[in-house]
From TrEMBL:
Organism, as annotated: Stegastes partitus
GO cellular component entries: external side of plasma membrane
Name recorded for this polypeptide: Myelin-oligodendrocyte glycoprotein-like
Entries under Gene3D superfamilies matching the protein: Immunoglobulins (2.60.40.10)
PANTHER family: BUTYROPHILIN (PTHR24100)
Keyword set, alphabetical order: Immunoglobulin domain, Membrane
Length: 208
């Protein structure tokens, strides 16, 4: 094997490929070590020098595009995996601070305008059931199991369900309402989950 052949054998794969194609176009026969061509490919070779140059440019472009697409696909897959993880559970916890006895709205939304009227969402405070909505029925309409602490004090926004809004209102807050709340959409896999924190401060100016 000549030094030239040795250098081409050790060259990057793309360069060896282009070298093989060049020899196939010009000499009608691959002369570089490692070039293997099917007979059907040889039969389609055109000897025009202008077409040779055009073909080589196209081949190089396709190769570069292939490598770029491969790298872009990896980046896209990584981005999608991160975005999917973030959409499944928000790491940012929104905090709401209110005085004892006031009302507070705890926000929860899928972030789009898709209706959730035919879906399920469940508000929890640790292991306590705060509010459950299930395709038209909820704790204030036909479903039992709400924690006694929140019974009769929690409601949602029926007119906003068509806009993807699953927020709730806790009325006449008490100090025991302070804590971490979770809004879960179990219809998704993995579940969509949104966390909020409620801080109820004692009111020192209570009416007597």
């Amino acid at each position: 094997m000549s030094n030239t052949d040795s250098r081409w054998t050790e060259a990057p794969r793309r360069d060896r490929f282009l070298r093989c194609v060049t020899q196939l176009w010009v000499y009608r026969e691959p002369r570089t070590s490692g070039c293997v061509w099917a007979p059907s490919m040889k039969s389609r070779i055109n000897q025009s020098s202008s077409e040779v140059q055009t073909a080589l440019v196209r081949i190089q472009f396709v190769w570069i595009l292939k490598e770029w697409l491969a790298e872009s696909l990896l980046e896209l897959l990584f981005f999608c995996s991160v975005a999917h993880a973030q959409s499944a559970r928000l790491d940012v916890v929104h905090r709401f601070i209110v005085e004892e006895g006031s009302d507070v709205t705890l926000l929860c939304s899928l972030g789009n305008d898709d209706s959730i009227e035919k879906m399920v969402f469940d508000w929890k405070k640790t292991d306590q059931e705060v509010f459950l909505y299930a395709r038209g029925v909820h704790y204030n309409k036909g479903i039992t199991g709400q924690d006694e602490q929140f019974r009769g004090r929690v409601s949602h926004f029926p007119e906003e369900l068509k806009n993807g809004n699953a927020s709730i209102v806790i009325r006449n807050t008490v100090l025991a309402d302070s804590g971490n709340y979770t809004c879960i959409f179990p219809d998704f896999e993995p579940h969509r989950r949104f966390d909020v924190e409620l801080v109820v401060r004692e009111c020192f100016h209570k009416e007597t």
